[in-house]
Amino acid sequence: MKNNKKYTLVALLSLGLILSACQKDQANDKASDNGKAETKVEEQAKEEKPAEESKKDAKDADKASEEVSMADWEGEWNSMGGYLEKPEIQAAYKTLAEKENTDEKTAKEGYLKKRKCDFGGLEISGDHVKFLKEFPEAKGEVIAEADYKFKEKVEAEHEGHKLEWDIFEATSENAPYKVLMMMPIHGEESLTHFHMRYGDDKDSLLKEEGWYPTFVKPSSTDQQIIDEISE
Q: Which homologous superfamily is 70-229 in?
């Protein structure tokens, strides 16, 4: 009887050790499974992050595209070059020459070169641009016309200042210029105007030094033009 009790006690102790070991193995297996699951989640998150960033970049680009369109410059515009030979304007070149410490002829030639433009005016409606031979009020010849779509924004430096160009690409096959570069309209407190560039290659246009064809509202006065030249 005594031996039977002894064997029973040993059996119970052995069973307890086995159960304890099983529970420990189950706990280890569970911890291992949890660790694997966490690792999988982390790896999945790493894979998803670049995709999310790409989606964000695409979304930002779409937003910029929605915010900018050729319609932002809608209306009729006179090329500033059409004013620069008027007798009423000539006194401005003397002031400009004094400011630039040069003679009047050199000052005028430099300014005409900076504002040089191959057309006299613009008519913009939605994405459609008409290039006019003269000011719009003359109701003269339309040199060419085309539709343009916003492509991107590009920053550039000019004399220590940061400039922002809105780049547009032609969607019309017969467009006279494949690329238009537009600066936002500004100067409303004095002379409402904007600068632009036109051509067939964006990179070449960005490298141009000192060329800023400028367009003003048809209501602009000679005095406003004089002030713009003299400033």
A: Calycin beta-barrel core domain (2.40.128.20)
